[in-house]
């Protein structure tokens, strides 16, 4: 199949299915993954589809979120669900764990349920660090530039700080979860921090209520299979086929 013919067929498939992975296109077009990735890159430049992590989506199918609510606004949303998720997540912390806690409102709720004083905790959340210390827990605060809207420490200094450590568990927040785009956030600096924390953790958990599923933001910080999802409602079967999903119920 000629290049132009193949790329035309890719656009047709994407528009028909709305979203498609590189592996699906490899099977459908009987060509290599490297060729498909090059085709997607060129078709994205031509604005004929939208390149996302692991594949592509139709331009009409993708509504990418580029803005983030302030902490005060997010804290008022899905409060009961966050409590349910946080209670279960806290139960996973064992003695001698070295725990990374990401900035975010669900991870902040997690601290309410932490009672293990034999573990150590590290965070890039300013309010998170204060809350951990108020509970008498051994806490490390990451240094760097403070982002006002999320009250999180971000930037290159923060990334370098994290690289020195190796966590047994990381509890991460996310703005969106998508099969193709993975775990996403609107902010490049925060994405860098999240990626580095996950890389340096033996096991990583995404704490996310049901509203985060099938949402895509500007920047991917991890692939779908890199973390275990803790959520409040049964995720679509496609997610359970690609990563571990723990559904918390009353």
- Quickly give the CATH architecture of the largest domain: 3-Layer(aba) Sandwich
Q: What is the straight-line distance between the termini?
A: 55 Å
Unreliable stretches (pLDDT < 50, length at least 5) are none
Quickly count the domains. 2
| Average pLDDT metric | 88
Q: How many distinct beta strands?
A: 17
Please work out how many helical segments DSSP would assign. 10
Alpha-carbon Rg, integer = 19 Å
Fraction of residues in H or I helices = 25-40%
Question: Remind me, CATH topology of the largest domain?
Answer: Rossmann fold
**Main sheet specs:** 7 strands, parallel
- The first-level CATH class of the largest domain is given as Alpha Beta
Strand portion: 15-25%
Overall morphology: elongated
Element-level helix/strand string: HEHHEEEHHEHEHEEEHEEEHEEEEHE
* Helix/strand class: alpha/beta
- Side by side, the strands of the main sheet go 7-6-5-10-13-16-17
Give a verbal description of the structure.
With 250 residues, the protein is an alpha/beta fold. The chain folds into two domains: 60 residues, Arc Repressor Mutant, subunit A; 177 residues, 3-Layer(aba) Sandwich (Rossmann fold), CATH 3.40.50. It is 37% helix and 24% strand. Strands 7-6-5-10-13-16-17 form a seven-stranded parallel beta sheet, with helices on both faces. It has a three-stranded antiparallel beta sheet with strand order 1-3-2. A hairpin with a 2-residue loop joins β2 and β3. α5 crosses α6, α6 runs parallel beside α7 and α8 packs parallel to α9. The chain is elongated, with a radius of gyration of 19 Å.
